[in-house]
Amino acid sequence: MALIKSAVNKEVGALPTVADENEPIQAHAKEGMGGLAKGLAIIEAFGASTPRMTVSDAAQLAGLSRPAARRCLLTLVELGYLAHDGKFFTPLPRMLRLGGAYFSTSSLPQIAQPLLASARDKLQESVSLAVLDEGYAVFVARAEAVRIVSTGVKLGGRLPAYCSATGRVLLSDLPEQQVREHLESVPMKRLTDRTVANLNGVLKAIRRAAEEGYAISDEELEIGMSAMAVPVRNRSGQIEAALSVSVFSGRVSIETLRDNFLPVLREMAERLQRSL
What we know:
Low-confidence stretches: 2-29
Number of domains: 2
Shape: globular
Order of helices and strands: HHHHEEHHEEEHHHEEEH
CATH superfamily of the largest domain: GAF domain
Largest sheet: 6 strands, antiparallel
Radius of gyration: 21 Å
CATH architecture of the largest domain: 2-Layer Sandwich
Structural class: alpha+beta
């Protein structure tokens, strides 16, 4: 979102003549479309906490003027991406096509899916894979356990990195100064009375994740829900993703997560690493 807002705020210059297709793209960065950037900023403003928006909401969240936000929203309605009831704009199923472009072309979710399913079958709990995106853990693959009430986030969902097990694992690979700068730039809120939402406490949790090779979030995101995550490294040894399991705290204890779930997650992470 930050990158898109930056693009929205830059004035798009006059377009030069059509470039030779063999010339580097960098030479023609000014050919960017401001209107497209504004539309994408509106799309990214929708989320779990903003499932519907008014024009004013969209303008504020996307950093646009009200007229620009209104034009973008109405265009998305016309194209079938949003519904409009006269006041609120709500995403329609067509919106899934945008994320589908990543999921259908990226090898990581495709390679991970059978391993996630194997881990789910062994643990009888939902297992997910996430990557880091601008301070959020974004879930790119998931094997859902069949239960009346599901746990965790859905495919494409985003969790704040500072208070999620997945996010802390992903942040643990970055230089501490970079992590510190990120944490100082985001509003850390206490989502429950167990949430660690201060700089020193979160840094300590991230260091622990780096040292121990896993992280646990114990009812920090939501009371009654816990999660554990382990890193998935690429061939260069860098953390590329995080493999996680989410459980109901009343059914699975933290001790069970460490003793029984951690070995399974680590086994699947190692198998996924060998495939990258």
